[in-house]
Amino acid sequence: MANFDILVLPGDGIGPEVTSEGLRALEAIGRRFGHSFRFEHDLVGGCAIDAHGCAIRDSTLRAAKEAHAILFGAVGGPKWDDPGASVRPEQGLLALRSDLDLWANLRPVQPHPSLIGASTLKPEVLEGVDILVIRELTSGIYFGKPRERRVVDGRREAIDTMYYNEHEVRRIARLGFELARERKKRLTSVDKANVLDSSRLWREVVQEVHADFQDVELQNVLVDAMTMHLIRRPNSFDVVISGNMFGDIITDEASMLTGSMGLLPSASLGARRPDGSGLGMYEPIHGSAPDIAGRGIANPLAMFLCAALLLRHSCNLEKEAQALESAVDATIRTGLRTADLAGSGSGVSTREMAQAVLDQLEG
Ligand code: IPM
Ligand code: MG
After folding, report:
1. Burial per residue of 204-215, b for 16 or more beta-carbon CB atoms within 10 angstroms, e otherwise
2. pTM for this structure?
3. 55 ligand 1 Cβ < 6 A
4. Structural domains of the chain in order of their starting residue, each with its CATH number
5. Which positions are catalytic?
């Protein structure tokens, strides 16, 4: 029997609705396999701003460092959207990524066979799609310095800096090659090396690392071309690595291959122990969805798949992760759909969908 400490940060919008279902899934796994999960809850994002005046407190960051894993809902909403505000919900998320050094963001994209019709793309384009995007998460233009807003000659201007050093690129490249080696042995590295110096360094380092992984095929693709190839021939990709901002953009695009953002989990990982597991933060990529928040209709499946990734990457519980993934898979096969996939005005509730997965898990 193993004990795991999980910091739970439901956040804003639909975050709390889906996170509570994710916790039920972990509890069910605990009962079935004999593990215990201790959950500590805290605030992040807009709700933390309302309660404490900042998007995340230092005590929350400390608790995160001491936990085995963090289960994260979503942050943000119209209430906190003022671009002039000095505190913003997203700062909580960025602080977690950076302070915990969670430099690799894994975003698997695999359309479910019974949901092929839900995508706007033709079924034949989606056949066999199974992509793992690894987005660099703690550097690049999100964190580069200088970063400022100022007034020069009476004119407002602002600067963000796209920065990468070789260490940051090398660890992403290594992880990409390692994971590609366990899959179809194809790695696509996304950059903008025809224009940006940071991308030329990125490409150079990726090519150097390739020397240690000659059995993996490497392809360098410019980010603009990548957005095109992703919808033209998505099944030609296996593992994709990219810098922070390019990865942000192409993963939203890639999510549409599955028909709904409500299905996609993500894992943010840093240093790993020898058994391959380590502190991680798990977060659905759908965001806070303020338009449907509080109505009990959000799709909980992305959160369930996050819980599975948490079991796999932070608890080293592969069998348990697969049990949860199979329960999600079986539930989708029964034809049950939440509104994001059933069409507005129809579909089952968050709770009904979640219960169906739990029944599969316990049945
Ligand atoms: C994501 C989100 C975040 C990002 C926002 C909420 C800061 O879009 O996780 O993809 O840009 O990284
Ligand atoms: Mg994004």
Report:
1. ebbeebbeebee
2. 0.96
3. no
4. 1-106+272-363 (3.40.718.10), 120-257 (3.40.718.10)
5. 142, 192, 224, 248, 252
